[in-house]
Amino acid sequence: MKPLKFKRLKASPCSLPPAPCYIIGFLIEELVTEYKRLKLSYSIPKQALVKPPESESGYVPDILLLNKTNLVNEPLWQKQSTVTQAASIPLIIEVVSTWRDDYLTKLRDYEEIGIPEYWIIDYLGLGGIRYIGSPKQPTISIYLLIEGEYQVRQFRNDEKIISPTFPDLNLTAQQIFQAGNM
Q: pTM of the prediction?
């Protein structure tokens, strides 16, 4: 088996500026609390690769929620910490640093894999107007896979986040953005 190549379209969390690191840390704490409360067989690895089908490269998401029960079906998990199947990936969260990567490239590839839920945390309102509207403002875009295509719902200010993966999650967009102001 030849080594897997991957493209890192984003810096690793330790090399990001403080704001996205705080947001990532805050969300990991909230999600871990929620999946433990619900007794779900989930985990969030420190680092793992998500590889689209028929591709030799993949992504290292900011937050990757794994369904541990499906990892036995992942052919690359044991040797390369790589997941390729939607059944292993209930949720991915990216904090925007280079908006074109998160809104264009990853959105397309995550949809192709069949990942049911994908969040883009655009805490600085960097995304293109067609993605976050005008005037540009901090926005959380939650993409849900419906009949094989992503449909988006956006959250701003004090709007409560609605997540099918965690329906009882009690967070607003503003709480997430404020985590970056630590």
A: 0.90
